[in-house]
Amino acid sequence: MTQANHQTDDQASKSAVKLTPQLPLGLQLREELSFSSYYTAANKLAVEAAQAAARGDELFVYLCGPAETGKSHLLQAAVREALDAGVSAFYLSLENLSRSDFEFSPDVLPQLAEFELVCIDNIGAIAGFEDWQNAVFALFNQLREKNHSLMVADLLAPAQLDLALADLQSRLSWGLSITLRTLSDAEKQQILQHCAVQRGFQLPDDVASYLLVHLPRSLNLQLAWLHQLDRAALASRRRLTIPFVKAVLTA
Question: What is the reported pTM?
Answer without folding.
Answer: 0.77
